């Protein structure tokens, strides 16, 4: 049975996770960064430790991310 996706990116119309894509992230409250442990000041928080883990770039909007699920058209950075 196919999995239903409740979240869709308005840029590329592809299914996204509950936090959206980097091009249009869903506002999150009281979240802490998995890399630096600080309170996330906004949805596009990139601390030094997270920057070291970036492995993908979006071929649509140019944003970068640590995982492909956060981007509209992810491509692995070589």
Summarize, please:
By secondary structure, this protein is mainly beta. The protein is built from one helix and five strands. A hairpin with a 5-residue loop joins strand 3 and strand 4 (64-65).
Number of strands: 5
Estimated helix fraction: under 10%
Order of helices and strands: EEHEEE
Distance between the termini: 35 Å
Give the low-confidence spans: none
Oligomer: single chain
Name the average pLDDT.
76
- Structural category: mainly beta
Q: What is the radius of gyration?
A: 13 Å
Main sheet properties? 3 strands, antiparallel
Shape by Cα distribution: flat
Account of the protein in words:
This protein is mainly beta and 78 residues long. The protein has one domain (20-76). It contains one helix and five strands; from the N terminus they run ββαβββ. The protein has one helix at 48-53, and strands at residues 20-21, 24-25, 56-58, 64-65, 74-76. The strands form two sheets. Strands 4-3-5 form a three-stranded antiparallel sheet, with no helix packed on it. β1 (20-21) and β2 (24-25) form a beta hairpin. The longest helix is centred in the middle third of the chain and has 6 residues, at 48-53. The chain is flat, with a radius of gyration of 13 Å. The N and C termini lie far apart (35 Å). The relative contact order is 0.20. The model has no long low-confidence stretch (mean pLDDT 76).
